[in-house]
Amino acid sequence: MSYSFLSSEWFAQVDAMIAAAGDLQIPAEMMAVEMNVTVSTASGDKQFQVSKGVIAQGHRADAPTSITLPESLARKVFVDGDTAAGVQAFLAGEIKAEGDLGKLVALSTVDPSGPQRELTKKIAAITA
Fold first, then answer.
1. CA 6, CA 41: separation in Å to the nearest integer?
2. CATH architecture of 8-121
3. Which of 5, 86, 118, 119 is 20 to 30 Å from 126 by CA-CA measure?
């Protein structure tokens, strides 16, 4: 079964998959990133956060970094795991970023662990 990207049902499935995945062996640089993400969609903005290397629905009031990006790019980065697309979009000004950008830049140099890549594939498989 597939779920609409960024819907409440999608987040519920992603949360369950993260919980079931066990130790994701998340690199320290990814664990250090606390970021709010706003995704511009045809039906309005959708919000989530990246905290300790995983995503969760909604924003955190105390997140030191915030980014805004279009839905197509959010899919590439967060569902397809295409970090290169994210770096290119950031350099091209397609991602609006505010706050502590140092950790965000450091994040672009780190590869996800094997378990993270496997989880990303599973998330992509349920995403409509």
1. 10
2. 2-Layer Sandwich (3.30)
3. 86
Give me the count of residues in the chain: 128
Handedness of CA 24, 40, 72, 12 (dihedral sign): positive
Please check whether residue 23 is in contact with residue 39, taking contact to mean a CB–CB distance below 8 angstroms.
no
Helix intervals (H) in 57-113: 71-74, 83-91, 101-107
Q: Where are the domains of the chain?
A: 8-121
Cα angle, residue 61 at apex, residues 56 and 72 outer, rounded to 5°? 45
pTM over 0.70: yes
DSSP 19-44: HHH------HHHHT-EEEEEEEETTE
Q: How far apart, in whole angstroms, are the C-alpha atoms of residue 37 and residue 18?
A: 18
Q: Which residues, other chains included, contact 123 with Cβ-Cβ below 8 Å and sequence gap of 6+? A: 14, 17, 79
